[in-house]
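Please go through this chain and its backbone structure tokens and walk me through the local backbone shapes. Keep your notes short.
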Amino acid sequence: MDDISIETSRFGAVTVTPDRIISFVHSIPGFEGLKRFILLDHDKEGVFKWLQSAEKPDTAFLLTDPTQYLKEYNVKFRKSDLKAIELGDSANLVVLAMVCVTEGAEGKKEVSINLKGPVIFNIENMSAMQSILDNNEYSVKHVITAGK
């Protein structure tokens, strides 16, 4: 298999093997038509990852493992969502949450994660989707840090 070069606005040209391409079964809401992505580590520890579009250089989402900030985050996904990513073995399921950095009052930065719309990945077949949870147990803006 020949490597694929992906142009990005944040990281320049990134070369990956075809087996690292993640195929979204449904576009992320608001980003219709974008279905091919790669995951890139943001830091050495792997706490944050970038979900970089393989189709649009300036589209990337910062993700993290929500259980690092909310240990009890344990979601029951709809069967239709798990079927859509063709999940057979739950050991192949990876759940990440989108991170949002905003500037609040007095110029303080606030970092929050979207627990209501986790991104679910089947690492066996490299398929994924953003799952929108039906319950009100979790928020789209779960603050994890607030500071300068």
Summary: The mean pLDDT is 93. The first strand starts at residue 4 and ends at 8.
